[in-house]
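Shift notes (night). Ran LytR cell envelope-related transcriptional attenuator while the centrifuge was going.
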Amino acid sequence: MTAGSLSGGGRAPRYRRRRPIPALVMLVLLGLGATIVWLKVIDNHTKDATASVHCDPPTPATAEPGQPAPPPAPPLGQHVDQNGLDQTLAATPDQIQIRVLNASKQRGEAALVTENLKQLGFSQVGKPDDDPVYPQGSMTCRSQIRFGAQGAPAARTMSLLEPCAELIKDGRQDATVDFVIGKKFDDLQVRTETQQVLKQIVDWSAQHPPQTGGLQSVQGSAGQQIDQALVDSIRKTAC
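Came back to this:
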């Protein structure tokens, strides 16, 4: 081997520069795929949360042998999303006209819940009764909150107390609310966050009394001071 060959007299090898475009495309595709996966996870979580509070439709009552057919049950009403009352002013517990109805076969449960509500400051609680919409006690979910247009502020407060209840808007013309317990109901689970929110509602209402008496305006909750972080925490309750 000659000295010339050892000294590298020939041209040095040329190295091809790698283009970064394929790598960038791969990163974009990976990021897009991860985004799609997370969107599906969020969508499935939302669907699961909705399904967990949804109640099966009522079963018509049947007559005993030899007995006349029972009267038809009242119509159930329309489902409202769990955040459907977020823009509604929340009523204080003492303003809410409410009764507890039993749509399950747990005897005495409505009476117990009635007493629990009284202990929480609900002073206008009616006499507990069986639910006429589910006359066979066949409501398989945890609970429902039924209300009309005038009772939206009361329903808003109840939804913070019982976040696993399905919201049902019916055609009633007054401000009354029905809290209906189903087969999956065990008891009112009053969390610390719930107590804090109820206090915020009461404190705000004391500083902003209604102009004409009774419940405040149904819409326009922008000025009401409720900590949204507490509301979000309440809604994370496993149903």
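Confidence is low (pLDDT under 50) at residues 3-8, 41-49. The chain is about 35% helix and 10% strand.
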